[in-house]
Design goal:
The protein is α/β, with parallel strands linked by helices and 148 residues long. The protein has 5 helices and 5 strands, in the order αββααβαββα. It has helices at residues 3-19, 43-46, 53-65, 83-91, 133-147; strands at residues 26-31, 34-40, 73-79, 96-101, 126-128. Strands 2-1-3-4-5 form a 5-stranded mixed β-sheet. α4 links the parallel β3 (73-79) and β4 (96-101). α1 packs parallel to α5. The mean pLDDT is 95.
Length: 148
């Protein structure tokens, strides 16, 4: 599968999360061309502020392969990761990060603290932004517009 089709899987996970009342963010982790984990935000359902799509997908992928190191894995997420998720991606040693929409307020990759540029960051994934950006941003805008 190529990056756009894998991001479409992340967008489907985001849509499912949004239908459940969660902020519509979805994540997919791929290893050797195989999807090994998919998750959407579950902070409300789990009553857990750390239940972001990226964290849930990283946990599932690590369990599936039996290692906390996901060195040969790529992560696709619909929104630029926050500081917590950027750190988890680094700690998991994710090889490549693909994200959709930028997050000027909460993002930590190309916005905000720019976690991967920090000298205390031990592992920096290859980063590819704006993959499925229009669709991801549109979904988020519609979600928040409906709640205002």
């Amino acid at each position: 599968m190529n990056a756009p089709s894998l991001m479409n899987l992340a967008l489907k996970a985001a849509e499912t999360a949004g239908q459940a009342g969660e902020v519509p963010i979805g994540c997919v982790i791929v290893r050797a061309g195989e999807v090994i984990a998919t998750a959407g935000n579950r902070t409300l359902a789990d009553r857990d502020p750390t239940a972001h799509a990226e964290i849930l997908a990283i946990r599932a992928a690590a369990e599936k392969i039996g290692s906390e190191r996901l060195t040969d894995c790529d992560l696709y997420v619909t929104l630029e990761p926050c500081t917590m998720c950027a750190a988890a991606i680094s700690f998991a040693r994710i090889r490549r990060l693909y994200y959709g929409a930028t997050d000027p307020k909460g993002g930590a990759v190309d916005s905000g603290v720019r976690f991967y540029a920090s000298p205390t960051c031990h592992h920096v994934p290859e980063v590819y932004s704006a993959v499925g950006e229009r669709e991801a941003a549109g979904m988020l805008k519609a979600f928040f517009k409906a709640r205002r």
